[in-house]
Amino acid sequence: MEWPPDYHMHTPLCKHARGEPLDYARRAEQLGLLEIGFSEHAPMPQDDFDDWRMRFSDLDRYVASVNAARAAVPGVVIRVGLEVDYLPGLEDWIKRLAAWYPWDYLIGSVHYVSSDWAIDHPGQVHRWAACDPVEVWRAYLQRLIAAAGTGFFDILGHVDLPKKFGHRPSEVLWPLWRQLFATARRAGCALEINTAGLRKPCQEMYPALKLLEEACRMGVPLTFGSDAHAPEEVGAHWPEAVRLARAAGYRQVLRLCKRRGTTTPLLDPTMSTMDTRG
Length: 278
What we know:
- The protein is of the alpha/beta class.
- The chain has one domain: TIM Barrel (Alpha-Beta Barrel), CATH 3.20.20.
- 31% of the residues lie in helices and 18% in strands.
- The strands form 3 sheets. It has a 6-stranded parallel β-sheet.
- Helix 1 packs parallel to helix 2 (59-72), helix 4 runs parallel beside helix 5 (174-187) and helix 6 (209-217) packs across helix 7.
- It starts with 20 loop residues before the first helix and ends in a 13-residue tail after the last strand.
């Protein structure tokens, strides 16, 4: 039985990561991961929308760098996708991105709760002080539900992202979470366990156990992602992530190729070890 693939990794094209895909692939091979996938921040229609994603003109370079890693590390299956920001009104743009290349998967993420506020951006954390956190969460979840409902995405990324700076969701939002998971299930969209939360102020994976339990109960498939922005972050906290998934009730993991999913048994981490040296 294999460790789950790491489907959420970035490259220097997003301007805030380091190491080429080849470096990530070699790290995965060292860890014993047999499958990984890259999901660079997709371009926006305007290249100056923000400063943390690749440009549309970088797409060829992105795919070429992943293909180079495939050729150099044949022992690791390497998928290629995009992490696509969902904002209302960008539906035609997202369709264009989806058709540009035969991607293995698209991760749908919500970072923006308005046209100019990325809720996880350290440079904008002060904006939380002027808002009711419940209303920020409500706006976030409504956008995430809309994203899931489009049917554009194979995975929903870091679904409780607004907790990054410590603003955890209120119980009054529970109906929206159930609506999100029901929408994802109907759309055939998975969610991910994203281990990057352990590297952030919230010190907790995305999503929290209670949310993961509800997603499992409602039949939402599961993938795993480290959100690696450096080679040493590939597969970060994988045994802990698998334990979290199993504690929530998951016994299968979704694998994706050319936007088609298959499920395989979820490893029992007590039966295997991961080589984290290097």
